[in-house]
Specification:
The chain has about 500 residues and is α+β, with helices and mostly antiparallel strands. Helices cover about 30% and strands about 25% of the residues. The structure holds flavin-adenine dinucleotide.
Length: about 500
């Protein structure tokens, strides 16, 4: 007997999302978090990409959107020095929610609490060992050191992951010698904001609103004549390795402004200060025996606005598979698909974030030309749509085993409008409980009968939809399509193929 089925190390967004998804799948995880209180250092300013669709499929998006302090931004994203202006598309493949990370963590913690997750703060994992049946963790808690055992451990413990180190998993990659600083600060009284947003600094002169490149870096100024609060952004080449949990300070901002534009500004107490550095690292594998990695512990990408999406989607992909192991119905090889699916997904995110480094970092005329050509390409619908989907991660199709392939197999299930005997609903609503779903769109009693053998695990729904993409969809708890039957596919091929897909993903009937 172990103390817990699954221990999650770290109560950041990835750990909290993992815990909630495990609870939905019927497992009671224990979350160990070294910090006694929730973090107060600002990190992400928002959440974007396919995770928003997933939150909608869990019935959480409205609640998360209601907590935002700012309006939904236009779907326009920085892409390494150029812009993805998705406002040109009627159905943009990517959206964002301006939900600061501290708020996101509070909401995720509330949700985990509602689902009955056991979260222990002030408990730091310092050691780990495993055998064929369990993992033993050494923990430093408020009452002293102790050991705790679990069948599985998920390291959601961030960039400097102790769990990754204890599992002996390498984290190769590159550190870019570049530091970005963001600040919102009140201006000193003597500085004037001109009508065009430029700042007039006595004894120095004008600082332009917008972006200015200098020999020492890049300065961004966001200002308005109606406000004394200004946003500053600086980017400099600097090889210091900062710890994200060590807050940035006002003197650090002042030093950076002095280096980049040579101005001495005595700004007031900051409303927001954050600093980010860029690393491109991916764990060489996401699993060592009974220890798994997710989130920043598994990958660090050299661009903004990406990491939470990738980490929280790891959590969603892994949780139901781990739950299947714990509850005893996991087919052989199910847990291995976490690595097979999420490692390539991480590599694809690495691909476009590394491309962003190349676009962003050049300062000469050739680099300017590259940015201009790239920006021009992004005025056409197809490249724009493709890049948007790549950044959002909505183009991810997991490899589906078996001979039967449908264009939707492996893709995120579309939110079809469904007409049922009880009224209208949608695929998103069927996924709220995070259970596997067999969705029959063509009254295929033959296929419903096959799925009935898995009724303890798979919910069967019958509905009609206007433009039917398939007769039947088999949808995994992470909302990806495991299998689909083409229109009017005969029972003698569809039934065995469905049986195979059900066994592959949800075990023996
Ligand atoms: C300034 C800044 C801006 C950012 N902006 C964005 C953005 O706009 N969009 C975006 O998507 N991402 C952004 N990011 C990245 C984002 O913040 C991270 O990707 C995210 O925090 C990763 O979540 P996580 O849960 O995987 O890890 P973390 O948030 O790092 O959480 C790990 C948790 O594990 C705990 N822990 C660590 N070691 C142990 C241990 N041994 N025992 C127990 N607990 C432990 C830590 O205390 C922490 O609470 C930004 C980051 C920074 C620094």
């Amino acid at each position: 007997m172990t103390d817990a089925d699954v221990i999650i190390v770290g109560a950041g967004p990835t750990g909290l999302m993992s815990a909630a998804e495990l609870r939905l799948a019927g497992v009671r995880p224990l979350v160990l978090e070294r910090k006694a209180r929730r973090r107060d250092v600002p990190k992400a300013g928002g959440l974007g990409g396919q995770i928003l669709e997933l939150l909608r499929y869990r019935g959480l998006l409205e609640r998360f959107a209601a907590a935002c302090t700012e309006p939904m931004p236009a779907p326009r994203f920085p892409f390494g020095g150029v812009h993805l202006d998705l406002t040109q598309l009627a159905d943009p493949p990517m959206h964002a929610l301006p939900l600061p990370q501290q708020l996101l963590e509070r909401l995720l913690e509330e949700r985990a609490g509602e689902l009955g997750v056991d979260l222990r703060r002030g408990h730091e994992v310092v050691g780990a060992s495993q055998d064929d049946t369990a993992v033993t963790l050494d923990v430093r808690g408020p009452d002293g050191p102790y050991q705790v055992t679990a069948r599985y451990v998920v390291g959601c413990d961030g960039a400097r992951s102790r769990v990754r180190e204890l599992a002996g998993i390498a984290f190769p990659g590159t550190v870019y010698p570049e530091v970005n600083r963001l600040a919102q600060v009140p201006l000193p009284d003597e500085v004037t904001v001109l009508g065009n947003g430029d700042l007039d600094v006595p004894g120095f002169g004008a600082i332009r609103a917008g972006f200015t490149r200098t020999e020492s870096g890049l300065l961004g100024v966001g200002s308005s004549p109606d406000s004394r609060v200004v946003s500053f952004y600086t980017a400099e080449d600097e090889s210091t390795e900062y710890d994200d949990d060590v807050p940035m300070t006002v003197p650090e901002l002042q030093d950076s402004l002095r280096r980049v534009v040579g101005v001495d500004l005595r700004v007031g107490e900051a409303l927001r200060l954050s600093r980010f550095t860029f690393k491109a690292r991916q764990a060489e594998r996401y699993r060592d025996g009974r220890i798994l990695l997710a989130g920043d512990a598994a990958h660090l990408f050299p661009a903004t606005g990406i990491a939470l999406n990738a980490g929280m989607l790891d959590a969603v992909n892994l949780a139901w598979k781990l739950a299947a192991e714990v509850r005893g119905w996991a087919p052989s090889g199910l847990l291995a698909t976490y690595q097979e699916e999420r490692h390539p997904a991480g590599a694809r995110t690495m691909l476009h974030t590394r491309a962003q480094v190349a676009l962003r970092r050049g300062h000469d005329a050739a680099a300017e030309a590259l940015r201009e050509v790239f920006q021009e390409l992004l005025t056409d619908e197809q490249p724009l749509r493709r890049m948007g989907a790549m950044v959002a991660g909505s183009d991810i199709r997991y490899p589906m085993p078996g001979s039967h392939h449908h264009p939707l197999a492996g893709a995120f299930a579309p939110d079809l409008t469904l007409h049922t005997g009880q009224g209208m609903t949608g695929v998103a609503e069927l996924m709220h409980p995070a259970r596997p779903v067999l969705l029959d769109l063509a009254d295929r009693a033959d296929l419903r009968e096959v799925a009935a053998e898995w009724r303890d695990r798979v919910d069967v729904h019958t509905a009609k939809t206007d433009q039917r993409p398939a007769d039947v969809l088999l949808i995994r708890p992470d909302a990806h399509v495991a299998w689909a039957a083409g229109p009017d596919e005969p029972a003698d091929t569809a039934a065995p193929a469905l049986r195979e897909a059900l066994s592959t993903w949800f075990g023996a009937p």
